[in-house]
Write a structure and sequence with these properties.
Elements lengths: L33 E2 L5 E3 L9 E8 L2 E7 L5 E7 L2 E7 L5 E5 L3 E6 L5 E6 L2 E5 L9 E13 L5 E12 H5 L5
Antiparallel strand pairs: 1-4, 2-3, 3-6, 4-5, 5-8, 6-7, 8-9, 9-11, 10-11, 11-12
Amino acid sequence: MRRTALAPLALAAVLFTAQPASASASAATGPGWEPAPSAPWDVGAGARCDFPVHGEPVVDEVVRRVLGTHPDGSARHVAYQGDLVVRVTNTGTGAFYDADAGGSAVVEYGRDGSQSWTVRGPVLVGVGEGQGNLPRGLYIVDGVFTMRISPTGYKDVRLLHATTDNLCDRIAPAAT
């Protein structure tokens, strides 16, 4: 499993889900770091892939640290890091892929529900039809990138030095 250290990201559920990750959680033992576990998730056929998908962390050592707050005390800037492997399963066939999503990120949470991510991947990003500048899919985005999520959920992913791997292709039914 690849270990990366940098500013983090809570994306295991950007994607719908995206939850952040990167350097080993044991490396972040200083004050202010706290666990940031990713929840299992399900999306129906057509939402991200042509078939229904289930995602569940099989390794989750993600931690977060609040770097700044809004005047009301809610988190404004949050760093995420730690190992994260998500098992992405085609629930129709049982085919699965264990995706390394252990990148790191700093996320700025807007008062309007928007999010701005500065990321060093790999990170899991889900995009619905017409809901992003990437086509519908479930991606591991690996490398250096930014992502802006609008209050409506539109994801604008800007690849600075990064690649995308659509996991739908990895777990799709075999062509006959």
